[in-house]
Every structure is written in structure tokens, then in C-alpha cells.
Queue: 3 jobs
Job 1
Amino acid sequence: MNGAHFVVKALQQQGVKQVFGYPGGAIMPVYDALYDCGVDHLLCRHEQGAAMAAIGYARSTGGVGVCIATSGPGATNLITGLADALLDSVPIVAITGQVASPLIGTDAFQEVDVLGMSLSCTKHSFMVQRAEDLGSVIAQAFEVARSGRPGPVLVDIPKDIQLAAVEHACITHSVSEPDAPELSDITAARELLGQAKKPLLYVGGGVTLAHAEAELRDFLAKTKMPSMTTLKGIGTIAPEQYAFLGMVGMHGTKAANFAVQEADLLVVAGARFDDRVTGKLDEFAVNAKVIHLDIDAAELGKLRKADVAIAADLKQVLPQLAMPLDIDDWQQHTIAMRQEYHWRYDHPGEAIYAPLLLKQLSDMAPKNTVVACDVGQHQMWVAQHIEFDSPHDHLSSSGLGTMGFGVPAAVGAQVARPHDTVIAVSGDGSFMMNVQELGTIKRRKLPVKILLIDNQRLGMVRQWQQLFFEGRYSETILTDNPDFVALAAAFDIPGETIVVKEQVQPALERMLNSKGAYILHVAISEEENVWPLVPPGAANDKMMEEC
Amino acid sequence: MLHHLTVTAQHSPELLERVLRVMRHRGFSVQNMQMNLDSDNQQVELHVAVASERAIALLTAQLTKLIGVTAVSLTDRTAEPKLAVV
């Protein structure tokens, strides 16, 4: 057995059945080993697409995604995907070929120092220097990717190591258990909970990463505490949950943004006070004490001092804080805010109104539908107007905000969950960023639905130019877009264009009922903006609204 | 403000880059540095003086997370290590 076959065996030992990638010279031995090994490889049409498909696979299942690329440009094309996974704490393992060991450092053909490049965009990275280390390195890579706060791991393997003879051995890496929370911290947190009159639960993506959704639901059932989520936390709390206020932050709900400014205690579960959540940090939740719960100790006190900071597994700590609270008045107040500030879908004229379109999609889509977003206005409209039963159903590039994420992430999700409906909601700007992945959809005949919301603009930038740059629309006008339906047709993907409201319902039905892939191209006005908006440098309760 | 750190880690070819990158990215400027490798090239001890207006705990927490870093301690010029982070 050579090193490449050993790599594939090591992947199989980790339970890997699906990988995404693109072959090339320095990774050819691994591709030879993949040829008849039983691990399914999906050829993406760009390495960035492969990385984002691996992210979509991981996020839609809660497992680890795997992508493979060659050296040099293959490896550099993975970098944006790795950074995306790092910012959103997604466990993926990226395997890259490297030029042969004697050539490293000679500026050989397709040589790049990917280990050096990986330092700022991975949780950890390895270069394998001896064939006998392959087993332990692959095992460590998976352990690092999924343990603690998950993240991307890169394994760079020189071609001579892939070709070297290796003895096959079953190698695993021990899983380190996180420390249990200190009793004194639990006691202090329970004291704060008992004293609070206006507590608010602030839920981030960390709850799902800890597989602690059930513990969170129990916590809410016992405390009946009002709650809100970050973009990554969407789907963790059922929309009908008692006193759930929706998403907080720049494009969050008015109820969440007002409530957080009134709260006297924030219970922060797996969230990190991101600037898109807090607005002006000094004025965020100024009346609140903070209980901060996170597996990553480095997040505690990073941006906001916590009165009680507990670095622990949320699965362990949440049950210890679940206690009945005497907060009836506050509950009723927040419920009243939720009712007062609900979304409105009345909109004049015949033009299609994107929030209503997405609300209709939310109402019509089957249970367990996965929505993979791109980045921009449509991403915020999805967050606001589609209801999710599970955080694994909402794939949105939250931390890095990577345009081009939606279609390849949908590819990964569709491969992972072949029996569920998967919809990529994209904008005309984002769609063109990874449009080559239509070829991947065609190749595997994946039934991915694409809802392309087209305002012939880079909409979110245009919105900011309108509001904050005196309407100087610098390089955001895309009236020269291609014919998207014809473009999709070139990849055997049927579709249609709609332009008025009355076309929406039947078109969504056709899209959802199509057996294969489908593109629904929706023309909307370039004047449509995302509201409300917390402007830069403002507190969350200083939201701008549509005039 | 100047802080003196001792970082202990398993040796790897890129270890120094990893540690220095985190220091730069998190807003700490290296003023002085000494690296010692043990006799069997397994363990590295870095003594680093860093300057920043930011709280040093923000840096020690990030260094502690690095895979292979086994201890981060903060010292002053006159005292023995007073904070063992790992």
C-alpha cells in the first residue's frame, strides 16, 4: 500500500463516505486511490466550490466535510472556503497535494507554501513529512476539526509521501473531553438568574456546534426566558417558541433590538458579540449583566466583559442553569413587542416584493427544506422571512460573508441529504461568483432549486451607497447581466423568469414540484432595501426604517 | 504597555510563524524575543516581550488555543511566573 491509498483508508476509518474536490498533478496518487475505493468523490468545477460544498455537507448534517485539491492554484483556490469555515466554526478537513519533498522551496511548478497561507485561515494545519506519520496526522486532523470549537484543518501531503510504501494500521486519535464547569461559576450564574427581572437569552451558532439544541429547548421550557438569535443561531429556537424575538443586530427584528437594550441580564450561549449583532458595542445592552457560556475560552471577555464567564460544553452547562424564573411582567412585555413589531407584507404595486416572495416560499416549502444563501440583501431577507425548524436547514455564510457560497453549499447539502428539498437563494451578484458549479449540479443530476433574486445591482452595497455615500453608485450597476435562464439551460437546468406578484405562487409551485434542478429567476426593483437597518456606529435601538 | 510572556510548545517547523502571526493579528507588537529548543528538538520555549494597548489576556487566550502550545505564562521583570494559563 502506498501513502495515497493509506490516506483513503484513513478517511474511511473516520467514516468518510463523501468527498468533494478537483484533481491535479501533485494530488494524482490520491485520485488514483480514490478511483475504485468506495469513497464517493464529487468533481466540483473550481476548488472554492469544492470547499464550500464540503461546508454545505458539514453544516447540513453536523458532520465533517472533506475537500481535496492539488498544489499551487488548487490549494490557493481553497483558501476562501477555509476562511469561511474558520469564521463560522465549520469542521472540514482539506487535503492538498504538494510538490515532492526535495522540490519544496525551489519554486517548483505549482508550488506554493500553502502551510504558510493556511496559518490565518485554519484552526490548524499539517504538512506530512514522513509517510509513517500519515495515519496519525489524518486522525488528528479530524479530531481537531470536530473537537472543542470546530473549524477547518488542512493536511498538505507532498507527492513523494503519497507514493511511498506504508504499512496499513488502524489509527485513531483520542478525543479530549472538555472540562466540566466549575461549581462556583454555576452558583454565581444561578444567583444572577434569580436576581434578574429582565433576562434575555442570546443564542449563537455554538449551541448547534455543541449539539445542545435539546438542552437549550429544556432551558427555555424551564426558565420561559425571552430569547433571540444571531444569524447562525437561526433555526435553533422554533419560531413559535414562547417569547422568541427573532434575529438581533443590524438587520434584526425591532423586538429583539429593543429588548436587548432593556434587558438587565444577557445569557449568551455560543455567541461572540459580533459587530453585526451589537452595533455600537459600548451602547449594546448597557443595562445588562452578562453570563457568557462558550466552549472557546478566548471568546469570554474578548469584546464584552462577562459577570460570569463559563468556558464549557453547552450540553453540560445549560441543564445546570435551567431554573424557573419569576419574570412574568417581562415575558408579557416582550411578547407584546413581538406582536407589535411583526413583519408586514403589504406592499403597493405589481412588482415582486422580495420579503413576501420568501414568506411565500417559507409557507410552501416542504418540512426539512434546506436553504443555502449567498451574501447580500437576499441573505438578510432569508434570515428575516423564512422560518427554519433546524439550524442545519439554514446555510448562510455568516462570519466571512462570502459571496458565491450559496450554490456550492447547496450542492454539498443536496449530496448529504438527497431526499430533502435543497434551495439555493442567490442574488445576481453572488450567483456569478461560483456559477461554474451549475456544471457540478448537471454532472450529478442534483435536484437543487435555485431562486435567483435579481435587482441588476450589487444590492447591499447599492443600499449603503444610497444611504451613506450620497447615492454615488460606484460599480454596483449590473444591467449587463447575462440571460440567467438561458445560462442555466446550457447546463440542462430548466427555469423561468417572473416579474410580477401574481406569478409568484404558481412559479414557486413549479420550482418546488420539479423533479430535477430548476432555476426561478425573479426580477425585483433595484430600489428595494433591507429594513430595518442599524446604521454603522449606532446603538441597536437606533434603527433606520423605510420612509 | 509592555508584557513578558513565556510560551512553551511542541516543536514544529512552523511553530514560530504561528505564534508570531497571532501576536501581530491580535494587536501586539513584538519588542524582544528569545527561542530555546530542548536537546532532543521536541520542546520549544519562547520568551517574548510584546507591547500593546490591549489587555494581555486577549493574547494569552488566543495563544493557549494554538494546537501544540502547552503553556503560556505571564511574567514581569522582577517576578517569577505568576499566571499559568494552561
Job 2
Amino acid sequence: MIEAVGLSKHYGKTVAVDDLSFTVRSGRVTGFLGPNGAGKSTTMRMILGLDAPTAGTVRIDGKRYRELHQPLRTVGALLDAKWVHPNRSARAHLHWLARSNKISTSRVDEVLEIVGLTGVANRRAGGFSLGMSQRLGIAAALLGDPQVLLFDEPVNGLDPEGILWIRRFMHRLADEGRTVFVSSHLLSEMALTAQELVVIGRGKLIAQCSTDEFVAQATESTVTVRSPQADLLGSALRDQGGAVRAENGHLVVSGVDITEIGELAAAKGIVLHELSPQRGSLEEAFIQLTGDSVEYHAAVGDQTAAAASGADLMTAGK
Amino acid sequence: MTLLAVERIKLFTTRSPMWCTLAALAVTIGFAALIAAVDTENLPTIASTQFGYSFGLVVIMVMAALAITTEYRFGTIRATFQAVPNRSAVLLAKTGVVAAFAAVIGLVAAFGSVGIAKLIESRADLGINSAFEWRATAGVSLVFAVAAVIAVAVGILVRHSAGAVSLVLIYSQLVESLVTLIPNVGDDIQRWMPFYVANKFLTGDPDLTNRPIAEGPPPSLSTLSPWWALAYFAGFALVLLVIALFTANKRDA
């Protein structure tokens, strides 16, 4: 279990992490979600005792990282796959790490096997592709067979095969009863990987809940209806208490169940060409929730994105 | 012990230490060979065989500075602190391993220099008997070790390879010599500069006045006795190391 209480990190006047409190429970994958620059990496470095918090504490199973004896046996982490000397072989890299925590050399070969790097174990790590580096980083994290695992943006820059592999791997680790804390700036990725979410923006906690809850909360469902008698159907739906908006020749309805819409149309003898449920996209929901807390706005792209998501979500909410 | 083993693995699983070793041995022993071969008027002495030690010293300090700065450059220092959160222990182990390695290179360089001179001029009397002769040869090993500690400490403080290497080189090769250009006090200041004092340990008292300057490293005018000179040099290294460890513990990795 990881427990952060009032965690803050200031760099001069810049506040990277601001009074952040959250709990990561064991036996499940918890996603650490936030836009780029939200303070995810800084928080992870503070968990590992690499950066000292300006205020607050973070404990792993009740202990500060620096108090852990042979920490690799308690916490495994992959913060940056490039933290390897390029001229050192994969095996040598794992060898010194293992030795530092009195982990047997046979375990080095075991983890190389687990991540599928046995064949290239004696090659220079500097010649590895990003996917291979990432696997080496995961091998290092697994060395001490730890109960707690931290991964910072593990799928960034990977090809689809690599992404799938990492995703399955996280689930396997959680199924083995371990605590997995994985950060990402992609909600869609987290929706597939994580059961729980800790969402931050500009260093502040936005939400901590299950992924399903977060998605349901963030995206309200609407129904798209196409009909040659749209005006008639529209007023009938408004009478039922629904919110109706005309858009590109179809109606976007919210507040009325999809079954009710169909039955209402049948009762009134209205012809329907389309009746389909819509869920707001996760990305839109994420932008809506963290929109105020994105650190670096791209002027043009941001305006259009905000306008698009704002329009959709506002009508959906009526 | 574990940490020493870890740092030993780290040092010998990259290439630069090996290249630096070869370079250090080549310049010191090469210089001894050159002097023995070129100076046909005088037979080589123990002192003259050690003329090139300061060139080897430069390479050793580059090696020592790189041993720590590459860790910062490639982020392995974070992996290290993650594996062993006790930063002082880790950095002390690294300093110890690098210093011990430098000492071994110093030993090989010094006796290798004597050996090659003997090979070239077999008539030379190169027996190591007096305290001075022991210091001039085996002492190189101690000076290399202390210099390595200084370079590691500077590396911890500066973190960037280029910065640390330039600082160490410019200081030891230029600042200590150029300080004499300061009017009136320049010479007095130089007598207390660490590398200049370290030279006193090697070139020592007895031979200072009665030997030709060409027969060994430039003599040192430090007023300290040879062993106090070494203690002074080591004390300087220790102070730098303590500052470096304190800094490394305080700042974010």
C-alpha cells in the first residue's frame, strides 16, 4: 500500500505538487492520471525517496522509502527506461542492481526470461530499441520480486505490440496480488489498464475513485435520433422532460431513456431512421475535468478541443 | 562489502576505465622510456624515471571524474539511490573503489617506469633503497588515489562530465602554476596549493637541492615535510568529499 499525505513539491516559485493526498491499495492496478506536467513523475520520484518533498510524507507499507531495508525487495520501479549506461550489457546492469540488494545472480536470468530479453542479455543496452529498454526497465523492477510496483508512462512511444504486452503484464502482476501504480496522460489507456484511478492536474488531486465510476461520472450518455419528422419527435421528447438539440440533420437527446424514445415514436406513428446510444469520449471527459489544470495550453488546438467538448458535454448535461 | 562489490561491477562493466588505464600507463611509462633513451649524458635515476607521473595523474583524474559524472548523465545514479537509499554509503563505496583502482594504476605506472628505464639503460643503478626512492615510486600510488578522491568529489558536486573534467584539469594544470603570476604573494600561495604540496611528498626533501632539475618531476618548495605534505593533500581531498556527500544528500537526485 502506498499512502501520500499532504505531499507538496516546490521548485522556487513553481508548485509542481500541491498538497496531494491519496492511497494506492494492494492487489489491483491503480492508474495515476494527469496531463503532461501535472506532477506525476515528481510524485513518483518522491515516493522513491529520490526527490525530497517540500512538505508532507509518502509511505510504503507504513515506511518511508529511505527506511526500507534492501528496497528493491519491497518496491520495484520503472521511472525512465533510459536510466542505463549505454555501454553496459543488459545482464551487467541487472547484475549490479541485484548485488546491491543481495539478490541472487540466478534471479537476473529469471527476470531476463520473464521479459524475453535472454537472447540479447549480453548486448550493450545502448543499442536497444525503446521497447527493449522498457523491458529491461521492467526486468530491473521485478528483480527483488517486490509487492509494490511503480511504472511511469510505461507505454509512451511503444508500438501496439509493446503496449499490449505491457498492459497484459500489469494485469498479471496485479492478479498475483501486487500493488501496481502506473502513470499515464491517456485516459483511454488507463481505462483499459487500471481498476482504480488517482487523477491529478497541476499537482492537485482531482479525483480518486474506481475507473468505472470516473468514466461514468465524467461522460453522460446521449441518444442520437434521425427521423423525417424530427420537429414532431423533438417537441414530443421535450414534453417528456428530455433535452433535445438538432445537429447536422439528427437530434441529440438526453434525459430520456433510449427505450422510451422508441416507444414514444411508435405511439405517435413517427418514422425513425436511426436510434443509437452515444457515450461521450473519454478524452473529452478528461479534458473537461482537467482542462483548467493543464499547465501548457496550445493556443489554437486547445480552443477547438475545448469548444468541441464543451458543446457536446453541455448539451448532454442539460 | 556489498556496496564495494556493486561499485566494482559498475566500474569494470564499462569501457572508459580500461581506456583510461591504458592511457595513464602509456604516458607515464612512455615518458620514462623517452627520458632514458634520449638523455644519453646522464644515466636514469629513480627520480628521473618518475618524470611523467603528473601526466598519468591527469588521466586518472579524468577517469575518476567520469566514473561518477556518467552516472548522473545516464541516470544510473537514480537507479543506484533507488537500490540503496543511503547515499553517503554508496558514494563512499564508489570513491573507495575508484581510489583503490587509481592506486593500483599508480603502482604499475611507477614500477613500470623504473622497469622500462632499466631495460633501456641496463647500466643504471635503479635499486629502490632510500626512503626518498620508495616515496618517489610507491608514493605515486598514494598520490593517484588521493587525486582520484578529489576528482570524484568534484564530479559529485558538478555532475556534468565536461564541467567536472575541465574544472579538475584547469585547476591542477593551470591554476596552480599561474598563481605565481600574482605579484608579491603568488609564490607563497602556491606553496599551499594541494597538487603542488603533493609533489613535495614525491620529490621530497633530500634531493631537492642536490639533484639536477631534469632528473625528476619539478621540485616543490612546500615547507611541509614529505609525509605532512601527503596528509595535507589527503586532508584537502577529505574536505572536498565531505562537502560533496553533504550536497548529494541534500539535493534531489
Job 3
Amino acid sequence: MKHCDVIVIGGGHAGCEAAHAAARMGVKTALITLKREGIGVMSCNPAIGGLGKGHLVREIDALDGVMGRVADKAGIQFRLLNRRKGPAVQGPRAQADRKIYREEMLSETECRIGLEILEGEVIDLLMQGDRVCGVVLADGCEISADAVILTTGTFLRGVIHIGNIARAGGRLGDRPSVLLAQRLETFGLPMGRLKTGTPPRLDGRSIDWSGLEMQPGDENPVLFSFLSKSVSARQIECGITHTNSQTHDIIEKNLNRSAMYGGHIDGIGPRYCPSIEDKIVRFSEKESHQIFLEPESLSDHTIYPNGISTSLPVEVQEAYVHSIKGLERAEILQPGYAIEYDFIDPRSLRPSLELKDVQGLFLAGQINGTTGYEEAAAQGLVAGLNAAHIVRGKEAIVFGRSNSYIGVMIDDLTSRGVSEPYRMFTSRAEFRLSLRADNADQRLTKLGLDLGCIGEDRKAIFLEKMEQLDRAKSILSTTTYTPTQLNAAGIGVSQDGKRRTGLDVLAFPNVHVEDLQSLIPELCDMAPAIRVQVEYDALYATYISRQANDVDALKRDERHAIPSDFDFASIIGLSNELKQKLVGARPTSLAQAARIDGMTPAALALILARLKRGNRAIRA
Amino acid sequence: MDTIFALASAQGKAGVAVIRVSGPMALATAQSLCSGGLPARGMSLRTLRDSTGNQLDDALVLTFSAPASFTGEDVVELHLHGSVAVVSSVLRVLSDFKGLRLAEPGEFTRRAMENGRLDLSQVEGLADLIDAETDAQRRQAQRVLAGQLGDLAESWRQDLIRAASLIEATIDFADEDIPEDVTPEVRILIDRVQHDLIRETAGVVIAERIRSGFEVAIIGPPNVGKSTLLNALAGRQAAITSEYAGTTRDVIEVRMELSGLAVTFLDTAGLRETTDIIEDMGISLALDRAERADLRVFLADSKEELGVCFKGGDILVHPKADMRLDKIDSVSGITGEGLSELVDRIAAVLKDRSISAGLATRERHRIAMERAKESLEAASLFLDAGTNQYEIAAEEMRVAIRSLESLVGRVDVENLLDEIFSSFCLGK
């Protein structure tokens, strides 16, 4: 029987990142996908990044993942969101060329040493007790493995709806894997049902662009990868148009024919990405909704009209599209549809994304109730790194809420579960001011070096940057200046007699490194990127040190791991209600236990007492 | 690591009250209270003064240096005269020190454990104590929130969620259809809460609203003599008694001192099925108050007959001892039989829960409001600075909301998202 260390099932965004991560860690990895061309396909809007999501891409990149570099190559319009707000909440975003993205991802995957692409359908898992030890392909061939990562998106009971027509399927055009789903069912995992929608795709040649507002990308594009130097694809503009009262009338009259409003769908959809039907019903007072017309590729004419996802019948889609300015004669290339699917309650996962009850089996991506390429890829990365650690018999790698958005997401998923498709927002990160897109490398590349998942190129660039940063910080913190000196240099400070370092002064709003140049001439040689970094760090320094206690407390709790056979029920002094919640949630650390609703400091102390004592039965 | 403090001794008019301070700043704090000169380890008799030199109390000050202390950290114990006024003024002065905060229930124990200072059988013994402390705080908080402060806290919660969600919406949904400048509405909301906080922390109001002491509810079927018992306990005619079942409809409160503890007895409507709307309202009120009380005295023949949950520490006594042959575990408000035994049992249970719920909670709320006030003030300033400091304003809002958590409840990011999605049409 053929053997691989790690098998990744699925070649979407989670699958790619998982396979690359495992291979970078040096274990023999196979990526099994239905067809090679399916690798790196963007099935929804071809855009990467945004608020929170851009942070995730930077973090993936900081660990030498592939998404950032591929997106930079495929980017046809880059915009840094929140440019006018503080750096902590700025998120890079790019419109990507679907075709370039897929080709670049495929070529990265083909070139990766230690990673093999296998075309085929996995129909079953090989089991040894409650441990997964390989897979069975549709042609009967079996492959053994130490760890299997399942990244099969919406394949679990996926149903596609267009109006009142429903049919089984994952993405439009893909077949659902029934047998594998049946195997998963035997594990008895808790599941839920979600839905999501897409808009009709339009032919750009049939759109009248002449009267539409156009939105260009940023003049100085901010890229995703710490390694990328410049954009490589031709840059384009997106169009903006709006729905009108006629559009709303058409949709209102046909609401009962929408799959979502006609009662054909019970799954829960994301509130941040409602269908056009939803928008018109819930916000009936709004006379118009904005639509972004986003080109999907430089090499074909498909336009993604962002803002009008729908599950209305095709003829209604045509009617309402044609009522919109610029789209009067637009041709629909592919109708919009809604898809409903099962997800597995992510509370059944450990923070490594391995199932608590099925050893060696990892889940990543949409199957865990998330939405978005970036969320999927980040989970893939976590699963890939951890699968490699399992192969080596090493401890799980746990990302924390205090070091990354990845950690925030994993903790949200595994300790709180999901009630709608989970998407990252910056507001989910309580340490948002320190978890910035600009410092993702400083937060994570060091960790990656320790893990061994960072390539030589990145290592060199990173170490050089850190050296420059250290030098800059030491220049700015060794000497102190009196208010008189500072005022003479043109920096307004009150005459309080307090001596300040360069870093102290940079914490003031509107003070920049160049203002200090006359006082500290060495600063003239500082590279622009380093200047920016130093300024950002100084800007938030007060807040970051204020949060240090919270971070320490959290880390202390994270360090107290709770073994999987821990007996919550026998802890004396815990209320029955809490016991039930703990037994249900099975937190894997004291930090996770702390996030359970209704948890008290006292109860945590009791759990800790038991942990310290070891998991022996307590005297009655 | 924060330095934490709390009242470590029993509530009520004990002779001595002990406040424990633990953490890196413990000794420095004590030095500052005692005008210096304390040994790192030892016992000294000192006059404690606040920062302006006002005398707080003459106290015995015990200093322990790490690691040989209860928590394994530097610890100071202030043994004060056990008056409520002295204790609360010292707690207040401590809370004004930067880097000091009130300990959570169980936090001293937790630190002791982290530092390997507790043998684990000791921890188990402490479990009940911590639990009682948490429980007492929770009950006290519930009581506060059911009162007038509760309505206020609820309006703060709504205002704060709305204000924070507006700021977050402009941050997380920047490229969507959201007003660019939400400052005017946010400012109105913040100002409103700020105004309330200033009034509440001014002192007088909150002191009246947050009661200290225990609540003991007397419950039972109609006409078993609950009101008569209350009157006997109070030594005066506090509740109207009559031979008619269902006489007591409102909840009648009588405050008294029981073995040095402040106790409020609640006389409640008799529990029975009734068609009288007013009596029915009285019964549901009775059930509600009984649920929140620290202790319930079941004046009944059995625990089960009332349909009220019998919790740990609750007391069952049989009614009308004067009419019984078997007087065991029974009481009579008319003859006074069994009365002193009942008082002893109640006092024993309450002393067991010898934690300073009322006082500590009051102080906790005051500190929470003070901290929230500061953060809201800062948030306001950053809002003025324009959108490029919204994320810092949002951070200050988050700190404010967290400070007020004990009053307004936990506010999760989900609460903010709920508000955002119900107010704005998002999803381009």
C-alpha cells in the first residue's frame, strides 16, 4: 500500500494551504483532488483580503504560506481599506484575476518539494479503532497516512437552489461525495446547516460602462506578502451602479419565487452578506443599494456584480438586472444561486483542528462553518502544521488570541462554535491594536522559524528587517531630550521638565520620524519601511503596555492544558449547570474554559486545583 | 502581574476586619499608607492615612515577603477596627492606587495555587468558601440589578452597545454603505452614560441603593404563621397578621441585627394556587424574592410541598409548634417556642457564608463606575480627533464596557454585531 505522512483531501483554499504547510514542515504530503484544474479555484467573488481578512492573509504569509504571494501575482486592483483610519484597522484587499490565481496556485503546488498532487475521489477513510490511518479512492486504491486533513467545503448534503429548482451539488458543476459523507456520519459529530448565495455573473461586453462611476485601485498598491515587491498583472478599475425602485418592485413582486423566501431553505445565512431579496425586505426604507461591478479576469469578460446575490428564478434575475443602470442589456453568463450545506460543529475540534474524537483526522475550511477564502486558508495552515507535528509525534501548535487573528478565529470556532457562517472582523480581536497587518511578520515569522516552516528567502529578509528595526529602536530610545530641546526641533511639547526619548515623542499624534531627524541625524539613513514600522509601534505603545496584564493572564490560562479525559463532573463545588456546559464543550485549556458562558473565576480556580492535582478521583 | 486586594475577614460587626493585599506593589502600597518604615516581614502597629494625610484607622500591619506568604507573592494584611465605615474607606483608598485592583472571588487562592503555596487538600477545603463568596456576590448583584440601579444599568448597556457598535461599524465595514461620521450619535450616547456615572459615583445615591447585609425569606403555605414569626423575630408588629389565609400580599421587609450580622427578613405571601389576581401577583413576587434571597426559611411540613427549590443552607422548620405534640424542629411565633433555636441556625448558616458580599460589591461597583468614567472620557477625546483615531476610541469603549461588566453584564462582540446588522444594510 502506498504511504504518505499527511493526506489532504480537497484542493480549495484550505486544502492548498494545508498541503503546503505540511510539506514545508518536511513531511511527505499528498493533495488529493477531483481534478488538477480545481486547485485554487475561487468559486465566489474573486477578491482576497479586506478588514480582518487581509490580516489573516498577512499572517499566513508570515508563516511562509502561499495565499499572499499568489494573490499578489493575481491582483488586478489593490486597495488598502480604512486608509484614513489608524494602521491597526487598515486591511489590504485585492481584486484577483481568477485565472491567474488558479494557475499560480497550481504551479506553486506542483513545484513544492515533498508535495504530490493526486487526482481522484476519496470515497472512504481507513480506520484503526477511532484513529484514521488512510483513505480509499473511488478506483479502489488505498493510501495509508499518519494524518488526514479534510477540506471539502460544502460537500456535506450540499443543495443548490435557483428559484424553486433544487439539486444536490457542492459548487455549481461539482458532484457531492456521498460515500465520504456517510463515513463522517458514523462518527456521530454534531452538525448544523448553513446557506450562502452568489449573484448572477454578467458578460462585461454587454454592460454599458459609459455612464457608470468607476473606482480605481490605490496609487501605491499595498501588497499582501512581505516578500512581494510590486504588482505583476495589469491593473483595472471596478464600476459602481445602484439598484432603483423598479428593481425593488420586481424583486418584491417575485419574493415568493425566491428559494430563500419561498420556504425551500432552512439553513442560516450570513448577516453580513445578505441576498438582494433580504436587503429589500429588511431595509424596505432604503431606495437604492450599491453594486460593485468587479471584473473576474483580464482574460475573459465575466463580471461579478457584488451586492445582488440571489436565489430567484433565472427570468426574474434577468428582469431585475436589466432594470439597473448600465445593465439594461447585460447578458447573464451564469445565474445566481443559493447553496445550503451541512457543517460540523467546530466545538468538536481541538485548537489544532484535529477532531477530539477521531485521532489523526483534521478538518479545515467551510466544513467548520466558516466562510471566505482567507478564513479557509488560515485553518488549512493550522491543520497542515499540526498534522506534520502529529507525524513527528510532537505537541500540538496552538495559536493564541494574543498573537494572531488566526488564534482568535480558532479559539472562537472551537470554544464558541458558530451560529452563522463565521467571518473574520477586526472587532473580534480584543488585542486589535497589537495584531496588525503591518507587524504580522514580527508576531509570527519567529514562531515559524522555530517550527521549521519558513524558507531560506523569507528567513533572510525577516532577519535583516528585525536587525534594522532593533537598530532603529535603540537609536530612538538611548538618548532623552528636554522639552526645550524638543521645542527647538519644532516638536511641540509642554514645558513639564520631563525628559523624553525619541520613541516617547513618536507616540504623540502627528509626530513622525522625519521631525526627529534634526535631533537624531542617524535617522536619515533609516529605510522608509522601517520608519513606518517604528511609528506604528510607538503610536500604540501605551495601549499595548496597558493590555500586557490581560495578555499575561490569558497566556497563563492557555498554558494550563486540560486533558481530553478530564472529569469535570466530579469536581466538588462546581454548579451542575457549569458542569453540564463543561462536559458538553470539553474545553482543551483553562483559557477555553474561561470563555464558556457563565464561567466564574471561582469555578476556574476549582478546575485549576484539579488540574494541579492530576486527574485522579477526588475524595468524596 | 496586578496587585490585588480584598476584605478577607467576615462581614458584620466583628472586632477586627482584615484586608489582604497581594502582589508586587503590596509592600510599597502599605508603606505609603503607613508613611513608611515597615519591615519586609513582620508585624507593626501603625496609623493608616490617605494620600492627603487624613487618618483612616490605627491598624496592625502584617507584612510577608515572597515566596513565604499565603499567595507566594508579597503580601500585606491590614488588621483594622471592624467598622463598616473604616473598612470601606480603606478599600476606597486602596482602589485609588495605580496598579491595584479588587480581587475576584478565589483569586488569592488561584495565585497561591499557581505559586505552589497551597497543598491540594487545602484547596478543596477552600472550594466551598470560594463558591459561597461567588454565590454571595452573584446574589448581591442580582439584588442590585433588580432595584433601581438595574434600570439604569440596563440603559447603560444599551447605550454602550449602540455607541461601540457605531464605531465598530465604521471600522469593520469601511467600504460599505455606512455613514462616514458617526460621532454625533456616539457622543450623545457616551455623554448620557457619563452623566449618570458622575451622579452615581458622587456617593450618596449608590450607598442608599446597594444594601449590604443578608436577605432571609420566610416562605410557606398560607396561614402557617409566617407573619407571626416575623413579628416575633422583629419584636414588633411589622406585618399584619390575621386568621385569614392570604393576608400578606406584598413582600414585607424587616431589617434587624442577628449575632452581629445585618439581616433583612422578608415576609412573603403564602404559596398556593389562587384565582385572586392580586394575591397571585403577591405569590409570584414572593417566589421571585425568595429565589434571590441569601437563605430561605421553609415554614412548612416538608421541603417539597412548596414547589420552591431547596438550596444548600436553606432551613426547614415545622410551623405552629404551640399546637404540636412533637416540638422537634418546629417554631411558634405566638409562644416563642423554637424561636431562639431558629435564630441560632440562621446565624450559623450566614456566618458560614462569612463573606463581605454587600460591602465588597458596593466598592466593586463604585470602582467599576470610576474606571468606566475615565475610559469614556478618553473615548470622547479620541472621537474628537477624527476618524484616524477611531480604533483607539473603540479600545477605550471596550475598556469602559469591561469595567462595567459587573453591572451591565458581559458585552460580547456578538452583541455589537447584532446591533450593527440590525441597523445597517451591509453586504455589497
